[in-house]
Design a protein that fits this description.
With about 220 residues, the chain is α/β, with parallel strands linked by helices. It has two domains: about 80 residues, no CATH class; about 120 residues, 2,3-Dihydroxybiphenyl 1,2-Dioxygenase, domain 1, CATH 3.10.180.10. Helix content is about 40%, strand content about 25%. Strand 3 and strand 4 form a beta hairpin. Helix 1 crosses helix 4. The two termini are about 30 Å apart.
């Protein structure tokens, strides 16, 4: 469990991202706060959002119903750290992309983005996973588009976000993809919240965010 001071900083960062209309935070708010559950990204970012809302989100992300409950939990853990068992740790997340052709999608990820095929199921294949370094993406074959492509582009609905550790790496990754002939939905751009990112569109229209620090 992070310290209470670090949790306060997390809440302030979420609040700043909302004010700056940082789209990835909208998905986090929608999944963490039920009252935002049926809103689009744009609707969430246009809603009033206060520090108390951000604190509630941080609390829920750590398994508590409210900020006050989180504070009590942190204090209790601090007082009895030697006797409290450790919460389970989620080691990884694997976003799922909906695609029309598993082989074509695997060819794109291996040939253009430098991924490798971890596994492929079925004949013809209907499910697969591609990997690069610590990133894993699951590919599921569907007969028709699951997401309205017009809405996806307009709202910038991301299918996955992948990160690197340094400003040098995000620039190098962009140049690598550019040399491979990748189609960009957004080219490398410095964002006001202190990041550099770009967005790749895969053959099925899925939007993949690649991000790293600006400095």
């Amino acid at each position: 469990m992070p310290s209470l001071e670090n949790l306060r900083k997390q809440a302030k960062l979420i609040l700043r991202w909302h004010r700056d209309r940082y789209y990835p935070v909208a998905a986090e708010i929608r999944s963490g706060l039920p009252r935002f559950g049926q809103m689009t990204d744009s609707e969430i970012l246009s809603q009033g959002f206060k520090l108390g809302d951000a604190q509630e989100l941080v609390a829920r992300l750590h398994g508590f119903e409210s900020w006050q409950a989180l504070k009590t939990g942190v204090n209790t853990m601090s007082d009895h750290a030697d006797t409290i068992s450790t919460k389970p740790v989620i080691a990884a997340a694997e976003p799922q992309l909906f695609v029309a052709d598993i082989k074509a999608s695997c060819d794109f990820f291996t040939g253009r983005l430098g991924f490798a095929v971890a596994f492929s199921h079925g004949e013809p294949p209907f499910y697969a996973q591609v990997k690069r370094d610590g990133a894993r993406l699951n590919l599921r074959c569907v007969e028709r588009p699951v997401i309205d492509p017009v809405l996806r582009d307009r709202e910038e609905w991301l299918s996955a976000a992948l990160t690197v550790a340094t400003a040098e790496e995000i620039k190098a990754l962009f140049l690598e993809f550019q040399a491979a002939g990748v189609v960009f939905f957004q080219t490398l751009k410095r964002q006001p919240w202190g990041a550099k990112n770009f967005i790749v569109r895969d053959p099925d229209g899925n939007l993949l965010l690649f991000a790293g620090p600006a400095e």
